[in-house]
Amino acid sequence: MRSWARCLDDYGLDPANQRGVDTITPAELEERQSRLGDLLEISKVEMNNLYQQVASTGYAILLTDPEGVILHQVSDPNLTQEVKERGLRPGAIWTESAEGTNGIGTCLVEKKPVVIHRDEHFFARNSELTCSAAPIFNPQGELWAVLDISGCSKLAQQHSRVLVHMGAQMIENRAFLTSFPNHFLVRFHSRPEFVSTLGEGVLAFDEQGLCVAANPSGTFQLGYESSNDLVGKKVGEIFNTSLEDLVDRASRSFFQVLPLHEPLHNRRFFAVVQAPEGFLKSQSAARPKSTSGKAVAPDPVEEDGDLAAPEFGDPQMVRNLALLRKVADRGIPILLGGETGTGKGVLAEYFHQFGKRSDQPFVTVCCAAIPETLIESELFGYKPGAFTGASKEGRQGKVAQANGGTLFLDEIGDMPLNLQVRLLRVLEEREVVPLGSERPITVDIQVVSATHQNLEELVAQGQFREDLYYRLKGLEIRLPSLRERCDKRRLIQRLVAKENPDGDPVEIDEEVMEVLKNHRWPGNIRQLRNVLRSMLALRESSRLTIDELPPGFLEESPAPSGDVEYTNEDDHCGVLKRAEGEALFQILEENQWNISVTAQKLGCSRNTLYRKMRRLDIRRPSG
Ligand SMILES: Nc1ncnc2c1ncn2[C@@H]1O[C@H](COP(=O)(O)OP(=O)(O)OP(=O)(O)O)[C@@H](O)[C@H]1O
């Protein structure tokens, strides 16, 4: 009612208007996109997540700036034309004064989530649309953007309102956290399990301990009307603690949720404190050097040696690294999760460099690659003559080899059940008993495990021991897929510099950069690295152009209208599984069952290929 009244009285609009939606020029669109900066990159990740929830239901996900101009869109590939015809496309202006009552425009005016369903639209020409929109505010509480889900469904989608609201909050929180790299961030909630979730409160404090910003949930939980009421207050006026205590918490227990007291309303909260970037660097610089005289791992962004730097500014990876630094030398088992090729192995090695074990062995066991019958001896070793075919000298197992250093258990989800119990015993008792021996050997190892699988699901299915799962996940770190990362540009530039065999400077055409940034990358960094290698080999000048992209690359992505998330695991879906199996069988046939060649063509590791073959029950036909 309010919006319709505005349309009639304030904007003087005619419901029968047939003019069509106004659109800005491509140059202006680009300018507006760059004005939004990091928020656009952060939003793209969230929009892809949202797309997963509404895929194939005929919806488009849209992001607009505060002037109602659509800056980015992710939609069902089949629907693109239909959606475009209705003016839901980048560059289109959807203010209420131009387009009458509509999700985006009305949300901008009302500054709260709205659903505008079909003939609630003011213009008859928009009455086939149903739109749910939610505002995104900047840390100063000003309207920053609008997130919208629109489609032509006849059903009012209550759930899309909830989804879009949650998505907007997620973007707001992420943007808040990345907006204050030089501040102490206190992340809190009245319930410890809600710290670091969507509903957490976040306050940013400067080096003098003065509050510079608060997110809406933080403002609300602390009982203030507006974040401005908190800005300028000292730490001690908000929580009964001091700046020194925050510094101490940030250096000692970033990953630990600790109680905080709020004196005004006498309430208890739980909090973690995230330190400024410089603070973390000075902490690691202050750490003693290892006994061999080898320097501790340098800052990852600056690193340029043999070891690949795991991140180039992506907020999730920055946080992952900060967490890992905190737990270095504390003997906490680390569990790394994430899709294949996201760099779990690289991160494990990097973690090894953080602490005083860096000059000790880093030993990898890939549980997927070793035949089940050999894992036992590979891991635990055996005494001379322990079994038929055993070598005369016996063999030291990988656990004992890693003594003093790090044992990296890659693809831990593939560890056979009967060996899980033995591994658990090793981890609990810090002793290993080689096959055929009765004398345990004491070992001191840092365990890092990795998997692309959902271990919780494996536990629920009885395929993975619950006790081992909890033993391995002292600290769980999830690596983002390449699609989700906000530092793709710098990652690509670094990989090009690193993979270029000639060492001369190579530039990347902006057109190529955009294609690479928006690709689905099911094989993640591994696949990206392989593509860049082949482009570098094919190049005829010091520039990488579109002509060097591998044949078929441009046609590969089925998501013409945006960056659509690709799901790697579809085990639960029989039809897809069969199709995947048939496709894989054919590729293996074409490559005479050469695993290395096939893996390279698919852009995955040999381990992943073996795992897939096992999962899809693919074997080389005999004869
Ligand atoms: N940060 C990085 N910089 C450069 N190269 C990287 C980086 N991360 C990963 N890579 C490359 O991608 C490849 C895959 O990385 P890695 O083996 O660590 O991934 P993974 O997640 O352990 O994969 P899988 O689950 O298949 O074992 C590596 O060989 C490495 O060359």
From TrEMBL:
Residues 283-293 have a biased composition (Polar residues). Keywords: ATP-binding, DNA-binding, Nucleotide-binding, Transcription, Transcription regulation. Residues 283-310 are annotated as: Disordered. This is Sigma-54-dependent Fis family transcriptional regulator. Residues 314-537 form the Sigma-54 factor interaction domain. The lineage of its organism: Bacteria, Pseudomonadati, Pseudomonadota, Gammaproteobacteria, Thiohalorhabdales. It holds the Pfam family Sigma54_activat. InterPro entries: AAA+_ATPase, AAA_lid_NorR, GAF, GAF-like_dom_sf, Homeodomain-like_sf, HTH_Fis, P-loop_NTPase, Sigma_54_int. PROSITE patterns: SIGMA54_INTERACT_1 (PS00675), SIGMA54_INTERACT_2 (PS00676), SIGMA54_INTERACT_3 (PS00688), SIGMA54_INTERACT_4 (PS50045).
